[in-house]
Design a protein that fits this description.
alpha/beta, 2 domains, 7-stranded mixed β-sheet
Length: 449
């Protein structure tokens, strides 16, 4: 396996040709590193400047006090010349973020880069690479702004998702965008052409990375190397992918290799929550708690499509729910439909969810729980009751759906649920059910292997 650690977490970095002009790509890389408090050593080369953003600017390679672990080329001209100079100087890892088009002229350039790489034992990423974001180690080579507050949030995590995007814009956006329910992100990369280090190499790097629990991939092209890497990794870590190309055969091969195909781009991050935060489902039988038959029927319809079932409770647990909840709850005790409540009071609704959740999860037939919240402020309750519930039943997934919840209350629930590591799906009932099914299927396949 290729050693990619110098690209994701170098002890020192050299940026060639940093401009003093704000908002240029190479200026942005330096600005990002300073703003996120990169802890390594930064070297910049600009023969026409003595300092840029407070960082000493060297006029030539020969002036540097050491050989940096990673070199970054962003200049559009003389790429091969600069690449060879870095290689001769002893730089063993080079990221080429210069934008190149693979036409006749650039094909010759790529051949030159490969020859130099082989001659001097250099590993390189790119060309046309947007860069890397490593939230855990406070490092980036992204040419798009990376926000310091996101670094602060993500660097505290022990494990999260890592994202490979065959799109510079989608990869770079991770430096400033956050989903409505924040998920922990470890690393992000856009490789560009990837003629030396490719996506399969990165997949294998993420396989060994202890801070990566779930791998997300946005694909324009599926190669045989990617398929083989996915086949190797999926028994160990889930790989969710979204493919926008036309090669249906390759897409099927990737699925057969163990890749988990999602229906649209945002589902990469929505389903990642379930794979990150939910324990292994022991079966396909679910308990449901909701405030209306409409919400419950939507959940049950999608369960039928996904081959999931309503758990059948013991008489003891059925009687507890019927006695303490009432409402129009199913005579079998599951699903729990508590409408209409006795009063529009949050404490009353809180007790219904508390009692119903504990009773359902205590039943051996219940493999997981779906909570439907369809509330206005008057019946909003403290979602933190699920801290004790989740602690009491750590081996059963809990998934939450917000259906037409009043905005301010919904924000509070999402915040509390995120702290408790309970996935929330806002107005996406079917997606919550599909997510549970994908999680169940992935674990089932692991057991068969």
């Amino acid at each position: 396996m290729k050693n990619l650690e110098p690209f994701f977490n170098p002890k020192s970095i050299l940026i060639v040709g940093v401009s003093r002009k704000a908002y240029t790509f190479n200026y942005t890389i330096l600005k990002n590193l300073l703003e996120i408090f990169y802890r390594g050593t930064i070297y910049v080369i600009n023969p026409n400047a003595d300092e840029i953003l407070g960082v000493k600017s060297y006029h030539s390679l020969e002036d540097l006090p050491e050989v940096p672990e990673l070199g970054v080329i962003v200049l559009g001209n003389q790429v091969a010349t600069i690449f060879e100079k870095l290689a001769k100087f002893g730089v063993k890892n080079i990221a080429i973020e210069s934008e190149l088009r693979v036409d006749t002229e650039d094909v010759l350039l790529l051949e030159t880069l490969n020859q130099i790489s082989e001659q001097y034992g250099v590993s390189y990423c790119g060309p046309s690479m947007l860069g890397i974001i490593n939230f855990i180690n406070n490092f980036t080579t992204s040419i798009i702004p990376v926000r310091q507050y996101l670094m602060q949030k993500h660097r505290k995590i022990k494990e999260g998702v890592s994202f490979i995007a065959q799109s510079g814009g989608l990869a770079g956006a991770m430096g400033w965008w956050a989903p409505s329910q924040e998920i922990p992100v470890s690393k992000v990369i856009h490789l560009g052409y990837g003629f030396d280090i490719n996506d399969a190499d990165v997949l294998r790097y993420f396989k060994e990375d202890i801070t990566t629990k779930v791998i997300l991939v946005f694909l324009r092209e599926i190669t045989d190397a990617i398929i083989e890497a996915v086949r190797e990794i999926t028994p160990i870590k889930p790989i969710l992918f979204f493919y926008v190309g036309k090669d249906i055969k390759k897409e099927e091969q990737l699925k057969n290799a163990g890749g988990i195909c999602v229906s649209n781009y945002i589902e990469l991050f929505e389903f990642a929550k379930i794979f990150l935060w939910c324990p292994e489902p022991k079966g396909p039988n679910l308990g449901i708690i909701g405030p209306s038959s409409g919400a419950i029927y939507i959940i049950v319809k999608e369960m039928r499509k996904q081959g999931l079932s309503l758990a059948k409770l013991t008489n003891e647990h059925k009687d507890i729910i019927l006695d303490k909840v009432g409402g129009s709850t199913c005579t079998l005790g599951n699903p729990v439909d508590y409408w209409p409540p006795e009063r529009f009071v949050g404490t009353k609704i809180c007790e219904i969810y508390n009692t119903s959740s504990k009773t359902l999860l205590q039943d051996d037939s219940v493999d997981g729980l779906i909570l439907a919240l369809e509330f206005f402020i008057e019946i909003e309750f403290d979602f933190n009751i699920f801290h004790k519930i989740k602690k009491s039943f750590p081996n059963k997934p809990i998934v939450t759906v917000l259906i037409q919840a009043e905005r301010e209350g919904a924000k509070r629930v999402v915040k509390s649920a995120s702290e408790l590591k309970i996935p929330v799906f806002e107005n996406e009932v079917e997606r919550a059910v599909r997510g549970y099914k994908l999680l169940y299927d992935w674990y089932s396949k692991i057991k068969k292997k």
